[in-house]
Design brief:
The protein is α+β, with helices and mostly antiparallel strands. Helices cover 50% and strands 13% of the residues.
Length: 393
């Protein structure tokens, strides 16, 4: 008589909650998986940990992880069809590769539903209002009057259109990259902000990316598209003088708020930009600056923000968890000096803290080109968020 199988509670996968009732894998299936699916040429099993929602196989990974995964996945599908889903991940205990098999229905992400579209529409309308308000200086001084003064609200239309273009460009980058990588995305939720117009969009990944490189491609494409567009508009604004009566008076102190903007402004304005002086700048400078900030705060390496997904894809789950703590500490510190940081850290902790659901094969690192793109996004975010520390002389 066989001894009863000791089964751990919960799911063996990080970041995934079982959908509906948990489905245990029968003992005879566990034996088939161990003895017939895994082998010396792919993954040699030395132990197993059954869970209510799957099983973890410990052992030794043989050969290239991506090739071994393909072999194992093919054997699994040939034997069981689409009943089970295979994952190759690093163990959080010893950082060694483990193989995880779960019933497919327990990890199949839910598609976007009609109520989700409705909620996204409400958030979108609120965002339209806040970006109009953000670009209407007269209304910012008297917020309640914005509800009864359509003309003044529409005065912010040019800036609102630029902000909307940057937001759409950011999300379009995500969707274009997701289509190329075979990743499905949910409905974007645009988060309104009275300080900068919008905090950007929150977009769920509704399928399981195949590998870390796919996650990196999708996560980095949005900030690269949005920041590139913002940077182009910023340069145009700095180079083109404002039209008659359209200039915005900006004190030189404001350019200390961003290292990137401060460097570019000093390079273009030259001696005209000095401490205590005020400049009449093209409105495009402020519109683009908001766009850069929106992309930068979404590129902070925390949780399920674009930057969090990028850091996980670049360096793995263990390093990502450590970076999370550092990012929260820095955001908390900056919240003492910036109301934008204060609101953003609260939103990020409550809405985007993670954990990030696993990719099917998380062992293989991204290639050099994707790594360069991911690092560029994080570096650009730092340039936008860090202050310009030198005096304008």
């Amino acid at each position: 008589m066989q001894e009863p199988l000791k089964v751990n509670t919960g799911s063996p996968l990080p970041g995934i909650k079982p959908l509906g009732e948990t489905v245990r894998i029968p003992r005879n299936i566990l034996e088939v998986l161990r003895d017939q699916i895994f082998g010396f040429d792919t993954y040699f099993v030395t132990g197993q940990q059954p869970y209510e929602g799957g099983v973890i196989f410990k052992g030794n990974l043989r050969g290239d992880p991506s090739i071994s995964y393909c072999k194992l996945n093919k054997r699994l599908q040939d034997r069981f069809g689409d009943q089970y889903k295979l994952f190759l991940l690093f163990s959080p205990e010893d950082n060694k590769p483990v193989a995880i098999v779960v019933p497919k229905e327990s990890v199949q992400p839910e598609p976007s539903s009609v109520p989700e579209w409705l909620a996204a529409s409400v958030f979108g309308l609120a965002t339209v209002f806040t970006i109009l308000l953000r670009n209407s200086p007269a209304l910012q001084l008297n917020f309640p009057s914005s509800f009864g003064n359509l003309k003044l609200l529409l005065d912010g239309l040019p800036g609102a259109l630029v902000t909307a273009l940057i937001l759409v460009g950011h999300e379009a980058g995500h969707y274009y990259a997701a289509r190329n990588a075979g990743v499905e995305l949910g409905v974007p939720y645009f988060v309104p902000s009275w300080q900068i117009g919008s905090f950007g969009g929150i977009t769920r990944i509704t399928s399981i990316p195949q590998k870390r490189q796919d996650l990196l491609e999708v996560a980095a494409a949005g900030p690269l598209a949005g920041a590139s567009l913002s940077l182009l508009i910023l340069l145009l604004g700095l180079l083109l003088p404002p039209a008659e009566g359209q200039g915005i008076l900006v004190n030189a102190t404001a350019f200390h708020d961003s290292l990137l903007v401060g460097v570019l402004a000093k390079a273009i304005f030259g001696e005209s930009l000095k401490e205590g002086a005020s400049l009449s700048v093209n409105p495009m400078v402020l519109w683009a600056w908001s766009g850069l900030l929106i992309n930068a705060i979404n590129s902070i390496p925390y949780g399920e923000l674009d930057g969090g997904r990028i850091s996980l894809a670049l360096w793995g789950r263990k390093v990502w968890s450590r970076i999370n703590g550092l990012s929260v500490a820095l955001l908390g510190f900056s919240a003492f000096f910036s109301d934008v940081a204060l609101y953003w850290v609260v939103l990020a902790i409550f809405l985007q803290r993670g954990p990030i659901a696993p990719q099917a094969e998380e062992i293989s690192p991204p290639d050099k080109g994707h790594v360069a793109a991911g690092v560029a996004v994080l570096f650009l975010a730092a340039l936008v968020c860090f202050p310009f520390p030198f005096p304008f002389t």
